[in-house]
TrEMBL record:
Keyword terms, alphabetized: Repeat, Signal
Pfam families: Rhodanese
Repeat listed as a keyword: yes
SMART domains: RHOD
Protein name: Sulfurtransferase
PANTHER family: THIOSULFATE SULFURTRANSFERASE (PTHR43855:SF1)
Residues in the signal sequence: 1-22
Source organism: Gemmobacter nanjingensis
InterPro entries reported in the protein's UniProt record: Rhodanese-like_dom (IPR001763), Rhodanese-like_dom_sf (IPR036873), Thiosulfate_sulfurtransferase (IPR051126)
Span of domain Rhodanese: 38-148, 179-294
Length: 310
């Protein structure tokens, strides 16, 4: 695949114009908007691994991020549909009700957890989905009420099917790398991973996909901010990535976490069509015999491991 030309943007962090909210909420919601939406009774999913017992948004259901992830050796893998169905039922989820996803919001990388859960639910047939921008931290900083009363949801009975419209699997990505199909490959990782100087612990090899462009997830945040920035120039972003009409875009990273932020920004905020997430990403791909770019030699790779890629 021919490497696409890099066209720099000034202020990618100022990326998107405010998105019109579907069903009164929408893909991105502020603490004030969520507080005002209580009459609509959205289901609030608190996906933090810890901190729920110490304080959470009133009515929120504890749904740790790990419920939506794969096993330790391949954490980006999507759980089997039947397992997801059981999880949704135990959480009292109902596709007919809006769902708001709340992460901790203490770092910019934390946003990827909320975006990944959003993507998983959307692919499972949920349509009224929102991420609380800034997470539980933004809610607390806004001085809004905190509860310590745990919520035990009433189980639901669901039949879930997976819609792969927003999914790229390893076979599909391998076809792109082999030139059998076309897609714009977007590596959401920090540059050190893209350049092959660092690798995830579960990855078999460092490097990136041939022809990929590096669009680090951090570019969607102002420096030091933990809430994604919803304003900016979508046309400039599309020009930078070379996205034309009907082009397919695949966002990837190590385990589909950082890539979920890029997917969310491109698909849900910028409104770009045909954007897919490669959930298993480089951890799974690196264990295949597929071609990789920016893969260092044995000595350089060893040196990078010893120095941390610096």
């Amino acid at each position: 695949m021919t490497r696409l030309a890099f066209v720099p943007l000034s202020g990618l962090a100022a990326l998107f114009a405010s998105t019109a909210f579907a069903a009164d909420l929408g893909p991105l919601v502020t603490p004030a908007e969520l507080a005002a939406a209580s009459a609509d009774a959205p289901i609030i999913l608190d996906i933090r691994a810890k901190g729920y017992a110490e304080g959470h948004i009133e009515g929120a259901v504890s749904a740790p991020y790990g419920l939506f992830r794969g096993p330790e050796e391949n954490p980006g893998a999507v759980p089997p549909v039947e397992k997801l169905e059981e999880t949704y039922e135990s959480l009292g989820l109902d596709p007919a009700r809006p769902v708001v996803i709340v992460s901790q919001g203490d770092t910019d990388t934390d946003f990827g957890a909320a975006a990944r859960v959003y993507w998983t639910l959307k692919s499972s047939g949920f349509t009224e989905l929102s991420v609380l921008n800034g997470g539980a931290t933004a809610w607390a900083n806004a001085g809004l009420p905190i509860s310590t009363t745990a919520v035990t949801p009433a189980p639901t009975d669901l039949t879930i099917t997976w819609n792969d419209t927003w999914t790229a699997d390893t076979a599909a990505v391998s076809d792109v790398v082999a030139g059998k199909s076309k897609a714009i490959l977007v590596d959401a990782r920090p540059p050190a991973f893209f350049e092959g100087k660092k690798a995830a612990p579960a990855a078999a090899r460092p490097g990136t996909l041939p022809g990929a462009q590096n669009l680090p997830y951090t570019e969607f945040f102002r420096a030091g901010a933990t809430a994604i920035n919803p304003t900016g120039d979508v046309a400039a972003l599309k020009a930078r990535l070379g996205i034309g009409a009907n082009d397919e875009v695949v966002s990837f990273c190590n385990t589909g976490h950082w890539a979920a932020t890029d997917w969310f920004a491109l698909s849900e905020l910028a409104g770009i069509e045909n954007v897919r997430l490669y959930p298993a990403s480089m951890v799974e791909y690196s264990h295949t015999d597929g071609e990789m770019a920016n893969q260092p030699g044995l000595f350089t790779n060893l040196l990078n491991q010893l120095t941390g890629g610096n």
